[in-house]
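note to self: dont lose this again. the chain is below, predicted strucutre after it. 207 aa total, dont forget to put it in the shared folder this time
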Amino acid sequence: MASHNYYAAILTTLTTIIVIVIVFAFTPTAADDNLAAAAPSSFYDVLESHALPIGLFPKGISAFSIDPATGRFDLHLLYSSPCKAEFETHVRYQCNITGTISFGKIANLSGVAAQELFLWLPVKGIRVDIPSTGLIYFDVGVVFKQFSLSFFETPKECNAMKADEGGDDDGDDVVYFDDRDRGPVVENHSGDFVRNRFTDEERKAVS
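---
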């Protein structure tokens, strides 16, 4: 009788251990919860977590990736050609956009341009004032263009651009500035950089 009770006690103990192991194996840990919380479900979540307005990029982000260590990101839009969204100015987005995001700032930006009169100026960086003054700045290479944060509260519709609006990559002229004397240089449709003489109206657009 004592032997039967002994084996029954061992069986009960083993059963309890197995149940505990199974429960722990299938119960999410705090680390798992933190990992899930750290993985953003959209690029708009990434913007919010870095104190940037979610309307900086338009509706239609189909995929994105980000390196948590460096902040380097790569996002793709649904569109097959450049599109533009209307704020206080027009902003043009390429299908693929890259940059480096940090708190209140985007640097090394590629694939975004802002319109000034009939020129498209590449936006190289974006930053907001911390603490906030309600302003946001676009680095267009020559100056920082200042806008109200309220323009970028929500993602805008992005409308396809016609070739004569700068929507044709093969015929797109974008104004850059060389690093030596900040003189105006235009990249033409062939990809060559040529010195460009601006009219008075064009000079005002980039001043």
